[in-house]
Amino acid sequence: MRYATNYDIGEHKRGSGINEDSIALTVFEQGHRDGYRGQRLAVEPTDRSSEYEGRDRPANRSAAGFVLADGAGGHDAGDVASYIATTVVCEQLANVVVRAARADPEPFDVDVARTPGEPTEAELRGAIEDAILAAHQAIVANAAESGIGAYTTVVAGIAVEGRLHYGWVGDSRAYLLNCAHEDISRLTRDHAVVEEMYQEGDLDEVESHVHPRGNEITRALGGTGDEDPEAAAVPVETESVDIYAEDILLVTSDGLIDAQTDAPQLHEEYVRSGRSEAVAERIRDAVVTDAEIRDTVLAAETLDDAAASLVDLSNDRGGKDNVSTLLLRNGAFPETPDNVDVAYRDVDEQRPVEDRETVIVSKD
Question: CA-to-CA distance for 193 and 211, rounded, in angstroms?
Fold first, then answer.
């Protein structure tokens, strides 16, 4: 299993802001005898910097738990909230990751009893939801103690046995990029005002890139501390999808998508033009689209290069907000079937949005 991360405060905030993004990752990897189910893997292009260059290498039995959080700008402790979220979630998921990966020793042909309590798919998603809820309650407790409100988005998950289990709150995103099919699938749907407007048909795809309300999210972890931390709750969306050897998992804060500093002006120009195709094309060229994310990752020679290139892309387009990226790939997962359209994993149509400082929208 290989992974890479990259962070940046964002060109627009450099020198005057703070980075409110946080990432945490826990990996369990075990190599024994001929590797995972006896499979040997050729080194893929993203591994060209490896010491195994030009040779086959044994695959490992492995699993990973990951979490990314983006503290809500405009609140006093967004960085605190994202820090708490990533540490609590990663700690909660660590034992689950190990239990999921080591449950079946049969592939290694060793005389060891199967570990009791192998987690089911529902239990893995439940563990992710529980970990996110625990983080929410910890942030609320910290807000109650400090007297400072704190909010953050979160995307968290577990990749094991050719399945990706994940959950999210807010507008940070997860994608799967498949190198065999050159496809990008968006796995999460933003909990955001613009997302809801797009879903309801009030915005077209171009307008959703640059809408002035792109800074408003409808769901987040944390609060002001006015409620009982032990009773605090937040709705968590969870899902499970297939993940293949040729897939690259990308988890990112909205700073990658919402890099354009001129978005409100572009929106006004688009509306005034009667939503002309000429202005629409200029907007597509100015913002970061899912297709451009796909092309950037697939063009990179290594995961480290891809993570850095995505941050550079965000800054080149304006760098309006903090940006963080996590990429993960496991060559021991099953190969992508030739007869499968991997786009089935997409949560829905591509719907990038525009953001400024993140604002929590009250349900009232």
Answer: 10
Work out the percent of the chain whose per-residue pLDDT is above 70: 82
Q: How many CB atoms lie within 10 A of CB 353?
A: 28
184 CB-near residues (< 8 Å, 6+ apart): 175, 176, 177, 178, 290, 291, 293, 294
Q: Is the dihedral of CA 193, 199, 202, 203 positive or negative?
A: positive
The answer to whether domain 2-360 has CATH 3.60.40.10 is yes
Kind and range of the H or E element at 320?
A: none
Residue 329's nearest CA partner among 189, 205, 168, 164 is 164
How many whole angstroms separate alpha carbon 115 and alpha carbon 63?
Answer: 16
Centroid of chain to Cα 253:
7
pLDDT band, residue 353 (cuts 50/70/90)? very low
| Average pLDDT score over residue span 126-150 | 96
- For 222-276, the DSSP string reads EE-S-S-GGG-----EEEEEE--TTEEEEEE-TTTT---TTHHHHHHHHHHTTS-
* Residue spans of beta strands (DSSP E) within the chain: 2-8, 21-30, 40-41, 57-58, 61-70, 150-152, 154-160, 163-169, 173-178, 183-186, 216-217, 221-223, 237-242, 247-252, 323-329, 359-360
pTM greater than 0.85 (yes/no): yes
Rounded CA gap, 212 and 231, in Å?
A: 34
pLDDT band at 69 (very low <50, low <70, confident <90, very high): very high
Per residue in 253-299, pLDDT (tens digit) is 999 988 778 888 999 999 999 999 999 999 999 889 999 999 999 99
